[in-house]
Input
Amino acid sequence: MSGSIYGKLFKISTWGESHGKGVGVVIDGVPSGLELCEEDIQVFLDRRKPGQSKYTTKRNEADSVNILSGVFEGKTTGTPISLIVYNEDQHSKDYSNISDIYRPGHADYCFDTKYGFRDYRGGGRSSGRETIARVAAGAVASKILARLGIQVNAYASEIAGIKATRVDLSLRDTNPFGLPDSDAAQKAATKADEAIKSLNSLGGIVECIVDGCPVGIGETVFDKLDARMAQAVMSIGAVKGFEIGDGFAVSESDGVSNNDEFYMNNGKVDKRTNHSGGILGGMSDGSRIIMRAAFKPTPSIASVQKTVNKSGEEVEISIHGRHDPLIVPRAIVVVESMVCITILDLLLENMTARLDKIIDFYS
Amino acid sequence: MSGSIYGKLFKISTWGESHGKGVGVVIDGVPSGLELCEEDIQVFLDRRKPGQSKYTTKRNEADSVNILSGVFEGKTTGTPISLIVYNEDQHSKDYSNISDIYRPGHADYCFDTKYGFRDYRGGGRSSGRETIARVAAGAVASKILARLGIQVNAYASEIAGIKATRVDLSLRDTNPFGLPDSDAAQKAATKADEAIKSLNSLGGIVECIVDGCPVGIGETVFDKLDARMAQAVMSIGAVKGFEIGDGFAVSESDGVSNNDEFYMNNGKVDKRTNHSGGILGGMSDGSRIIMRAAFKPTPSIASVQKTVNKSGEEVEISIHGRHDPLIVPRAIVVVESMVCITILDLLLENMTARLDKIIDFYS
Amino acid sequence: MSGSIYGKLFKISTWGESHGKGVGVVIDGVPSGLELCEEDIQVFLDRRKPGQSKYTTKRNEADSVNILSGVFEGKTTGTPISLIVYNEDQHSKDYSNISDIYRPGHADYCFDTKYGFRDYRGGGRSSGRETIARVAAGAVASKILARLGIQVNAYASEIAGIKATRVDLSLRDTNPFGLPDSDAAQKAATKADEAIKSLNSLGGIVECIVDGCPVGIGETVFDKLDARMAQAVMSIGAVKGFEIGDGFAVSESDGVSNNDEFYMNNGKVDKRTNHSGGILGGMSDGSRIIMRAAFKPTPSIASVQKTVNKSGEEVEISIHGRHDPLIVPRAIVVVESMVCITILDLLLENMTARLDKIIDFYS
Amino acid sequence: MSGSIYGKLFKISTWGESHGKGVGVVIDGVPSGLELCEEDIQVFLDRRKPGQSKYTTKRNEADSVNILSGVFEGKTTGTPISLIVYNEDQHSKDYSNISDIYRPGHADYCFDTKYGFRDYRGGGRSSGRETIARVAAGAVASKILARLGIQVNAYASEIAGIKATRVDLSLRDTNPFGLPDSDAAQKAATKADEAIKSLNSLGGIVECIVDGCPVGIGETVFDKLDARMAQAVMSIGAVKGFEIGDGFAVSESDGVSNNDEFYMNNGKVDKRTNHSGGILGGMSDGSRIIMRAAFKPTPSIASVQKTVNKSGEEVEISIHGRHDPLIVPRAIVVVESMVCITILDLLLENMTARLDKIIDFYS
Output
């Protein structure tokens, strides 16, 4: 599996299984001079920590991060930063009964076919715990972006069909769903309670906005900012769709309506509307960047399901581990992290775009 | 702009501007022994050729491809294949009047800010002609996939809100929209005629299906098959959304409904439904892979639009070049190409996944 | 510093400083099904362990490796393997007096200029301890190569001008220099004793041979097998030269003498001589691969040296930490490791070279 | 063959065979705003042009370069630059008699084994003509470096054992060997005349110096400046050894002699000696960078040689194409080019090393 490394200049290399010794990430390409301590990263990890409400897994782990390298006297040195979170509360026995069974909606069958066998405990590498490494790296990227005046914020824009009708970021952390809208949160609670009762699970949508991004970030052909964010976000388990700006709605729009008019706003180029979602031709256009990711309902459900096992027998299964009935609440910070990492990576690359600026840099 | 190279083992490096000498691609990593001639590639290019109906640009170019290297005595040698299509029918004067104006919905403003100036003729590098290189490379990838029993087919599933209600691939090329449904095509024609009359443009959706893909293609974390296809497809100009399987609809589904039950079908593992779109945990699961991409309406419209110019003055513009009122018909083969390239790249990488197979290979 | 990742399919991502919490490596791309335990890796690490003779540093660390991920029930799973060696016997105070001084022959001045400051303890990231990560990864690569019938062996071919006049690998580990020649080892001991007495240090040459490599490994242009090995080996601290086969001696040879005649040897193509060192046109040619790396004398010496400090003052320094008077003995396994990693990486890539073999693989 | 792309930010993708339609390169990552015309590149190509003296091949081609993309109104736009040189004076019949024979010292046997067959005309992809693409890209890199005050100069330091005893760059182009020493050139001419008469060929050494490189270029672990230059230069056909600074001589030196003392030179840190060759810990140290590459004698010789053919028969061959009796004279500019490309690539990457400079850049 040669696919656990992401990024070109800000490169993250993640590792770890759900029920192994831990999960972690090595970040190669962190610029020197950033003040960084474990608390900076812990704040991000706590946002995806399990056990925060009845709507998330009861797995109870502090998920404390350790910085193993790359920081000296409180500052990054420019060398790789190795971050580790040890696994603690593993109930591996929970999984022994399903070691030979292919859970519907999971990668078990693909893993066995591709690799010949698999670490079946808790999903192994395909566990949601894999995202700890993304979030730890995202915390570092986010701190750098903040120094550059760039803010990235994600939230749930929809839970099981219930849409947030307003976006008040201050409300996001006041409900267990990450909804920036208290009314929607109440309705979502009702739906989620029902789902739990009926041994079912729910999907939703995470929206992410970026403010303060300079114009021109993103490369013109394959490494368009939106293309790279699409890969980054779609690589999060359970994401089945990605869109930027008006997204799929553009298919029913027309050019006159969909084009965003440029105008001068206090001496600066601005757009009257933002159908483009802050990106034109793969480059940031100076407006707010806005994107959405669709998450499928948690595939691990306690309801009885039909499936097959490794020997090719048809069997029934009901999954009783400790699983989130909704993925979205804890996935919000994962989306935010992948967006931060991608923007930073392309922002670094953009420094090399113009000869006059390179000459300035070196003189 | 360090972003015109895509792929890891099957690597494409594209170049060329709308009104330069030509466009082309160098493909590094084509295995040796593939029978390949210019006609193989021309067939693909002809599917995106301009001037095929009143719904596409009147730019009239044969877009004939030349193979410059990598083929000897009718077969690929394993060395890089350089493909070139010379530009012919350029009307650069069409653009002189907009050289300083930022066209709404286009990358002009971003280009000027990022690079200090731009080749304003016909969109320069951001022109739709850039996709010629993608299609030429896609033709090669497609031919290799065919040898492995893998078929990739894209078509328009929706034009301006008019959905194909059936998918009969044999109908796709019988109408100017690439719709696999003749009724939908008739309705689309009406809508498109209106759009042309009102100097407007329309969006749509391209759907792509892959049959015959072995199980296990795709890498588990960042290089998931769907994540990489998301990057590949979102990197096509004008794409604003991407989804796999049920896509955004999963957000309103629930686990019981959305999980695909495994069962034994004539001794083989199969799925009763395919909400997942043929991918689980980022790996192909043996079912049909199905994905969709949303295209925005062509931003170049003849209607009068307000905008600004390079000097920061507010101006009006109406764009009179030769532009497609719909992007979708000619984009179908571009989507197909990017999907072929991505699947082949990950299929090659997958050969290294298991030690027992590596030992077999070398013994 | 975006330079701690090496490899394309077998990718290693290393981290760690001399006096931080530890050093480690994440290996992405290890095929599944390899039996692997900590002892397999420890054997390699023990070959570079400090404190093994009076000719190596007295730093006394077990350098015990921990496997944190990627192995399940004794076998690799195909997911990233994270390996860590905790630092133990750090005497950071040894370095406080040189925190502002630029040691001759070291990277201190470059580090400060590039990054603004540095972790001055024990060389930080530029310490020889960085090579622990290379060796841990090399042990894994070596085990895979062994399964494919490929043996890689390095040894000292020269210590301070004293050349091994024979190569008997069984003698390599019977002397503290890694010389495959006992007579040379005795002479080297005399020279090394003198160097220690006079607070000086010595250089030498490591030679590495590869047997059993299939024909055709290496890519024809930039990723030639010898070119990639050159990068891999030159990236080891203190290496100042690299050569393959006859190396620099070819400059004084002529075509008639230097060309290796092909002949049939028991029905197989073979070469009568091996001036090429087992590589032609960047690809392995089936003969023994042979290469050499020149190591400079350890720059850390206790003799008084003139230099400057961070404030631009001229000062004197004598370095009293625990340093090896010779780098070569402990570097042997580092060279072997980098060669293993490189050959494996290109051997995996080579699987994708021919269409007929790809079709075989997937059918 | 996935090995014809080199570089990380300044990426070159080369293609072309000796007797195909041409050779070329696509450069992705050229910053915008560089004044560039074909003459800038032609000057470099003319330095490797065949037919310049009796010591080089009589193949008579102008090797005129065409810029196909990436330049608008005389300046680079930031988009990929595609450069092509058409082949003209091909005598493919020269090779038909050796299509099945494995020439000693050539890659024929490796090619056939790796790919199943090969383009045998003129060495195909392994021809010296492949280096045209390197030189064309090198010309662009060199022009950018010049704008940054960095000069790269290569020359022959040794021809067939005859060493240049002085380096006067103004003499380099006054003799057919590229020697910066007229006495050595005279002796070399005598030796070369003999070699031609006896149907033999000769080797030599190219030395390359870099002046004006800022401190800190190069990344600390695998992407050390010297390691990357080693790959770049060793990837040139016929190079069998690479060294930096004192190179292999360090193996016989000692720490006291080999360490370069730092001192203050007019308020700047400087070194009294330069055994390190301008690189410490993989980073440029501000001194002149100096390196050497050993070239083997041309393997194509007219003398009768024994070898085998594709059917496993032992045969004799004498090679009568138009071959250089010495590779070095025309290889000088190739070495210079690969060094320029590598330094520029790492110089761009270095812009991202420090947070304070990134903040400056974006404010």
Remarks:
- The radius of gyration of chain B is 21 Å.
- The mean pLDDT of chain B is 94.
- Chain B is about 30% helix and 20% strand.
